[in-house]
Amino acid sequence: MKFHRSYAALEKQNRELRDDRDTLLTQLDAARKHIAALEKRLGRSGPSSTKPLLHGSVPPKVRKAVPRRTKGWFFDTTPFPSPSSTDYTKLVYDDGKLVDTNQRNAGYMKHTEASANKTVRPITALQIGVMYTTRLREEQRFRSEDAEPEPEPSSACSQDEDEDENEDEAQEKKQDTTPSLATRTRLNDPQDGLFYGNLATGSQVVQLPFALQMSLLQEGYDLTRQGTFDYIRKKWPREQLQHFPEHWLQIRFGRQELEDARFGRNTSDPAKLRIVYAMDGVISLRNILCHPSYVRDLQQLDALLRSAQELLVKVEDEERALKVRGLRDRVQEEAREIVKEIERREGLKMLPGDQQSPWPIHVQLMFESIDRVVFKDTWAPEAILRAAKEWLKKGYRVGEDEPDFQARVEAAQAWKRSMDDGLSERKSESDGESTGTTETAASWPIDNTTAAGEDLEDLATADEDDGWSGGKAPQSWAAESSQTGW
Length: 486
What we know:
mainly alpha; coiled coil
């Protein structure tokens, strides 16, 4: 707070000095005009130019910034040296503005996060804090309107500079023409959009076998963990020893596992943050593999593999990224083969004596899903629609038209009947044992008289001799007590 008040006092002093200077310069210009007019009247030769001198032509006077004590309730009267006087910073006036002779910049020239990201080394720019490109040149600190223009450089220097500029431009063009890793590995291949957006390819309805899906996803997941482990091991060895010390299998992309590891969560390094965000994109792939489920949409299957490839691109692993790109291409190839097989079997059924095998389970699941779609005639190839209608006419559910399905059902029913028969035999044997136990118990007399009942009967017998209530009340108590279990 004291620093701000001392700085305000210094600024007030500077304003007063500038006002005094402007007043004196105005008086000086008026005096010079008056002298020139007098010399003209006397016939003396005056100066070649009567143009008044500008303020900028006054040679700069070196001043030392010293805070001045001010009085008033809104200023702190405690002497406090400003930073400029503490480190002996010299300030000079240049066209009415104070200029630092050490060419230091003000605080507002510091980098922001957005401007630092545009530099070659963002972290270094943020740590340094000052945009050094805004420093005043040595020859420009005291320039004024009367300053002479700078001499043109010699031809040899200009040629050297032109050659350097041409080399820089050629280097920039070379960098622009060099494809990035994402481009080389076809991370965002336009052909993918053409395949998944074209209804004729059947990509909207075709489903791959479950085992093939899990195989492709598992291979892509393992490649991603291997590439991530190698990159972290080279770039951040301390973090690697802390989180994944021994093997790439220790890398797990569960959401809670990533949050607990806190790898890269407390950093401002843009390179590490990009990798952390890409690791979050692999969470869905990990969930599918840890909780296996059918991926019925080909585009979703491609998106899961793409997340793995994107992380490999971030960690600069071109070899493994190309392998994952091959897995994505195989998804499209397998889908095309399924459509071709459906079209081929449609042509073969016209031949006499054709006995075709049942459709695979993943194709039957596709037919079943087509039947549930309202506008199915507008987004599936005609061959797939005709095959689906023919399969639905048979009235089978998925897997019921397999040759051994009926035999397996009969075997299961026979096994169930044998289990039921064995259960009934064991039940009859247990019933016979319980009947024998009941007969044995019936041959012996059962005395249900409780100890409390015997005591009440003795009391009733003793009271009958006394003639109290004819013995009715105690007898009724005894009966009630025997019923209630007292």
